[in-house]
Amino acid sequence: MDLDVFVTAHRAEWDRLDHLLHRGRHLTGAEADELVALYQRTATHLSLIQSSAPDPMLTGKLTQLVARARSTVTGTRRATWRDAVRFLTAGFPAAVYRSRQWWIPTAVLSTVLAAIIGWWIGAHPEVQSAIAAPDELRQLTRPGGEYETYYSSHPAASFAAQVWTNNAQAAAMCLTLGAFLCLPVIWILFLNVLNLGVGIGLMSSVGRLDVFLGLVLPHGLLELTAVFVAAGTGLRLGWTVIDPGPQSRRTALAQQGRAAIGMAIGLALVLFVSGVIEGFVTPSGLPTWARITIGIAAELAFLAYVYILGGRAARMGDMGDVEATDHSAELPAAA
Predict the structure, then answer these.
(1) What is the C-alpha separation between 19 and 112, in angstroms, rounded?
(2) Which pTM was predicted?
(3) 5-61 pLDDT, tens per residue?
(4) Which string of DSSP letters, residue by residue, matches 218-276?
(5) What is the C-alpha separation between 94 and 301, in angstroms, rounded?
């Protein structure tokens, strides 16, 4: 592209668009139609310049012009309670449902790996001795030891808030760092699986695996599911960088990235529920069967939420993305 010739050919259109934008509300019907047409053409010009002959000054000028025109054409929009309701009843569960091909295998493989690690540690005393000294292992696994008192070591409310904050940060890291070719997500997921496997192994080695599971399952079912969803979504985002499919890499990443941001908000709410269970139910005096029942009920409620509401929204075409009216315009690569 000869940039000078291109600018000479289209400068009058850009100046006319700028003039109409300065007119603001004082446009006739014909002028409003002209503004829309000029906005669309200028957006195409910007796309052509960015892809064929990028010039920083001209690109910056046209970017500002297109942004002003888009704001005028589409108007400003404020978030409402309707948006929050739509997000909770359709957008978030649809996003989780659509990413199930990623997080369900992630959950299965992680659970199997945690069980293998637990068996390996529990069956090999030399591995246990490499983890900690015998006295330290006894402090962890004995009745009333650290594995048991951990959940009641702080007031329930502050403990629940601390757990929620830590888990929400881990989920957000999985979602946002997935774009780095999946590697950070795999590492974060492995650390969680390793921590779980060590607990299984050490407690099973002293015949107290039932106590450990009775402490972990009430909150752990929902908490781990949220972590697996975050990890699976992060891996999906990373794979989009490698293989964007039929869309351009930029468009595919924008779509998956917007969905991932929504997932971070939704999973923070899910982890809040698991944090409340961990802070108030896990260390409570309820029988083990009652605590585990509460955990199973919370897990089944989340899965029903995803598969019923999310499945219905997904079948209706909801991608878990923001509404189409809030998307940035997708510009053609050539005129």
Answers:
(1) 65
(2) 0.71
(3) 888 899 999 999 988 888 877 788 888 888 889 998 998 988 888 777 777 888 888
(4) HHHHHHHHHHHHHHHHHHHHHHHHH--TTS-HHHHHHHHHHHHHHHHHHHHHHHHHHHH
(5) 15
- Round to whole Å and give the CA distance between 184 and 111: 19
Residues 241-265: tens digit of each pLDDT:
888 878 777 777 777 777 788 888 8
The CA–CA distances, whole Å, from 59 to 3, 42, 49, 191 equal: 12, 11, 7, 44
Listed in sequence order, the residues at least 6 apart from 193 whose beta carbon sits closer than 8 Å to its beta carbon are 110, 113, 114, 117
Let me know if 85 is exposed, middle or buried by CB neighbors in 10 A (0-12, 13-18, 19+).
Answer: exposed
Measured in residues, the chain has a length of 335
Q: Which two tokens stand for residue 320?
A: 């878990």
Q: What is the pLDDT of residue 77?
A: 56
